[in-house]
Automatic annotation (TrEMBL):
<protein>
    <submittedName>
        <fullName>Universal stress protein</fullName>
    </submittedName>
</protein>
<dbReference type="InterPro" id="IPR006015">
    <property type="entry name" value="Universal_stress_UspA"/>
</dbReference>
<dbReference type="InterPro" id="IPR014729">
    <property type="entry name" value="Rossmann-like_a/b/a_fold"/>
</dbReference>
<feature type="domain" description="UspA">
    <location>
        <begin position="1"/>
        <end position="143"/>
    </location>
</feature>
<dbReference type="Pfam" id="PF00582">
    <property type="entry name" value="Usp"/>
</dbReference>
<comment type="similarity">
    <text>Belongs to the universal stress protein A family.</text>
</comment>
<dbReference type="InterPro" id="IPR006016">
    <property type="entry name" value="UspA"/>
</dbReference>
Amino acid sequence: MSKRILVPVDGSEQAAVATAFAAENFPDATLVLFHVINPAEAGYSAQASVPSFSEEWYEQKQTEARERFDELAAVAREAGVETVERVVEVGRPTKTIVEYAEENDIDQIVMGSHGRSGMSRILLGSVAEIVVRRATVPVTVVR
């Protein structure tokens, strides 16, 4: 049985680098390109009983994810990866990534780092750092 490698993608250059790294280092694995649509970006709050994002906003996010998937799947296939899965989930990125890995037989997570430091890291947090701390599978963070 081949390995399943989860590659969270967010449209950043770091996500593209992580995809290329995963493809080059795990050419026989199934790469699972994983995008999380974060409702907080559309003004959703945990206190609200109904999300405030519109259907148009959600459709736009799905379209953007599909376009990213097409580009990154091409990169993976050029490196020799035969099986690429594409998954879109809605939720808080850190929690959604960790839960998906636990529930879907993921062997490893490979993700990009945004390389924040100082105050911006404290204020914004680091998705990669939180995933490293909470994941039950190995996590490789690529710069």
